[in-house]
């Protein structure tokens, strides 16, 4: 019985140290880093759209964290520069994601700013790319006999258009597209932006070895 008390104390000390090292200190570093220069707060429509994005679980297939060229060819893919901590200052909870069943969306507003394209893609991705495995979201839209003066009609190819009437976007669809259109992190990152440069440091250490090996040949 007397052995349990030291074991419990050691266990709690390890837990406290891990929490300090992995949660509290990084949180303080990120808080001190602040908002990235050039990052704008979400508009009301973008904030509503972000809530739709979160509720639909889009992060399970899309990431929002372009990586450094030392880690992945995200720049060559057109996904934008590597992200830094300050890019997520207005995100709670963040939507970094880990899966890339679909492309990274951190800068989708730069790549595909068209509202028509985004609405069509949400209603039926196969209307854009017949090989797409993205699910369709018809519940974000309404079939009407005739569009009203303020309705936004979804432009569909004949194969996906209704036989009668028109497909119009609900407010959730419009807000979600506003959120996607607003994802433009085209500003320069801060020079001291927090990010993991481990891969770059490894490359820097290995470079002299590689050059020496070539010289020996």
Automatic annotation (TrEMBL):
<keyword id="KW-0408">Iron</keyword>
<protein>
    <submittedName>
        <fullName>Cbb3-type cytochrome c oxidase subunit II</fullName>
    </submittedName>
</protein>
<dbReference type="Pfam" id="PF02433">
    <property type="entry name" value="FixO"/>
</dbReference>
<keyword id="KW-0349">Heme</keyword>
<dbReference type="InterPro" id="IPR003468">
    <property type="entry name" value="Cyt_c_oxidase_monohaem-su/FixO"/>
</dbReference>
<keyword id="KW-0479">Metal-binding</keyword>
<dbReference type="InterPro" id="IPR009056">
    <property type="entry name" value="Cyt_c-like_dom"/>
</dbReference>
<feature type="domain" description="Cytochrome c">
    <location>
        <begin position="44"/>
        <end position="184"/>
    </location>
</feature>
<dbReference type="InterPro" id="IPR036909">
    <property type="entry name" value="Cyt_c-like_dom_sf"/>
</dbReference>
